[in-house]
Design brief:
Blueprint: H1 55-147, E1 151-155, H2 165-179, E2 190-195, E3 201-205, H3 208-227, E4 248-251, H4 255-269, E5 275-279, E6 282-286, E7 294-296, H5 299-306
Antiparallel strand pairs: 1-3, 1-4, 2-3, 5-6, 6-7
Length: 307
């Protein structure tokens, strides 16, 4: 069997004009960067030939870069060492300051403890001294009461010309007769009588009985006068010249009792207490009219009564 084929029918194909430049260059050409003809320079690729470095060049460059890196590392190390020295110095300074501060704190703490101990001792001594002072005041007050247990004070009695103890004793006898004493006061019953700078007259009787009877009659006289709305004991009852002045008679109290009695009278005026009075040098108060009398010995006790 024959394998020969009939050739295909060909049509006429117009021939293309070949390019005027028939020269072909390839990348493998060693003369790519060299123009054969001046007029054909535009048809070449401008490719430069890469120069390969030799081993010596690579070695020299590596050495140069290594030197630079080594110098940089040395410089960096030097800087780090300098910073480390600075930090170490600052750290040592802080440690020293902290140590000194700790010593100072310990010293201050020790001083503080000593100061607290001293304050505690001073407070203890102060309490003991206050107790001693309080005890001494109590003893002094007791002795003053004993010394003044027979003494009274007369206030608001006008001073006379050429006044003497004799004339003062006569005035006391006249007051006793005015208030209605059962027995007249004898000169022998008056141990001493004198006027203070405050114009108050002090009368020291020989017995507490005469003192108490004198004060009792004075209070009874004034109470009756108040109830009858008549003038209470005054200078007119003694036939003294001038305007009538009310006379006041009371026990001669010690300094401590006088202050306490003044506070009690102030509370009576403010209606915090119903009444207050003295008897044998002691201070008594009533919180209300129906309550029992309460003896007070100090301002603390008075404050408790007012609660």
């Amino acid at each position: 069997m024959s394998l020969q084929r009939t050739p295909p029918h060909t049509t006429s194909v117009p021939k293309l004009n070949a390019p005027t430049n028939s020269t072909l260059h390839y990348n493998s050409d060693s003369a790519l960067n060299i123009s054969n003809k001046p007029e054909l320079e535009d048809n070449y690729f401008n490719i430069t030939k890469r120069q390969k470095r030799t081993f010596e060049d690579v070695n020299n460059d590596s050495t140069c870069h290594f030197s630079d890196i080594q110098a940089m590392i040395i410089e960096l190390k030097s800087q780090q060492e300098h910073k480390f020295v600075s930090l170490n110095s600052a750290l040592n300074m802080i440690i020293n300051q902290n140590s000194e501060l700790q010593k100072s704190v310990e010293s201050i703490s020790s001083q503080h403890q000593e100061l607290l101990s001293k304050i505690s001792n001073v407070e203890k001594e102060n309490r003991e001294l206050k107790e001693q002072v309080s005890n001494l005041e109590s003893h002094v007050n007791f002795f003053e009461k004993q010394l003044r247990c027979t003494t009274i004070e007369v206030r608001n009695l006008p001073k006379q010309t050429n006044e003497t103890k004799r004339t003062l004793a006569n005035r006391i006898q006249e007051i006793g007769a005015a208030v209605g004493l059962t027995t007249n006061i004898q000169e022998s019953e008056i141990r001493d009588v004198f006027r203070l700078k405050s114009e108050t007259i002090l009368v020291d009787f020989t017995t507490t009985e005469r003192k108490e009877s004198f004060i009792s009659k004075f209070k009874t006289f004034n109470k009756a006068r108040r109830e009858s709305k008549e003038p209470q004991l005054n200078t007119g009852h003694l036939d003294l010249p001038g305007h009538n002045k009310q006379l006041f008679i009371s026990e001669y109290l010690s300094k401590q009792s006088r202050k306490l009695f003044y506070l009690a009278r102030t509370n009576v005026k403010e209606n915090k207490l119903a009444a207050t009075w003295t008897s044998f040098g002691n201070i008594y108060v009533k919180k209300s009219e129906d309550s029992l009398p309460i003896r007070i010995k100090s301002e603390v006790e008075l404050g408790r009564v007012l609660l």
